[in-house]
Amino acid sequence: MSPPPSAHRPHVLIVGCGFGGLEAARRLQRADVDVTVVEKTNHHLFQPLLYQVATAGLAAPSIAAPTRLLFRGERNITTLMGEVTDILPAERAVLLRDGLRISYDHLIVAAGATHSYFGNDAWAAHAPGLKTLADAFAIRRHVLMSYEAAEKEPDPARRRALLTFAVIGGGPTGVEMAGTLAEIARHTLEGEFRHIDPASAEVLLIEGGPRVLQAMPEGLSQKAKEQLERLGVKVRLDAKVTSIDATGLDIATAAGSERIASHCVVWAAGVAASPLGKLLAAATGAETDRAGRVRVEPDLSLAGHPEISVVGDLAAAMSHAPGQEPKPVPGVSPGAKQMGRTAAGNVLHRIAGTPTEVFRYRDYGNLATIGRNSAVVDLGTPFGPLRFSGKLAWLFWLFAHVYFLIGFRNRLVVLMDWASAYWSFRRYARVVADVDGPGEGES
Length: 443
Known about the structure:
The protein is α/β, with parallel strands linked by helices and 443 residues long. β25 (365-371) and β26 form a beta hairpin. 45% of the residues are buried. It has eleven helices and 27 strands. It is globular and about 70 Å long.
């Protein structure tokens, strides 16, 4: 069965309510179509600030919004919580895990991405990644419980391993996570323990390449590394992880193999497309790249299936700027938003019988925060690149992220929490409801 559409109106099904899916739905919210949004969770998540939940800086509701709340005033949009398990292009329908069958006239797939351990999936048990609120709760619990265990540990070697935090991957998530963990050790937990000194904790950022933030210019990468080191982070470059287990990890460097004893490892090194990509490719004959992303046409549709579009991290899309060679679209939130709007607009073009538009990505730049008063910014402007770092970059990063948060309440709460943390060095989202359980209900 399908949700009841209005008589004779086209039905657009959107799978996923991340940045791409949300923008697609917004583009269609006042159009003469019926829209169904299917999402595995009951919320839209502002992923760029997810590490703040993982490091106790923000509560989960500050960076998430219930999907139903987002569309409650849009009578042509139905939201369903469910997981797509099969796609039937010949029948223009999808199946959900609970057995529900949903028919569509147009399908936009925006299922996002998951972690990639480069074929070493067993590492996931010892080095969780950060993509969902459940991931953030698990990492936050692991970090806080490491300090609690160290407070009770009499053996110096085991205590040192408990107070060694290793972040694998020098991209924005890894840099932001490592910088924040260093601030927690040196400021947030000051004076709260009696048998350990939290400031003695060692935070490692391990990157397999020659520099951190490799998508940024080399000068900003170096600035980021210097700012991390001023915070107390030990940055290990050209260090490739070869194994991870419950007691630590092994890395390979130019000097040889090295063992790092650590009871808290965070994975921020690899991203793979949602498994739905392979399912879609098998059903439609579409090609996928090495990361499992689905190759799309210039207008984001699938070859042979113009009624199906793929956007966001699931799409191996190219930007087609006039007079320029096509360029790959980076896996960042602005790209997903722009793809969502373009795909939805092309649905309306098809309904109206007018030509679709090719996708053109507008690169507004990159930014990453390192810690208190520390960030790097690389902006694209009509007059050329604008690059800066330090406190001004940190303020720019702060207000940019607040601006793009969903809802006035979230913007206000985040500003208040950040202002409090800035002046007091405290992080109050440190309640762990169940030290042994999965913790999905934490906030």
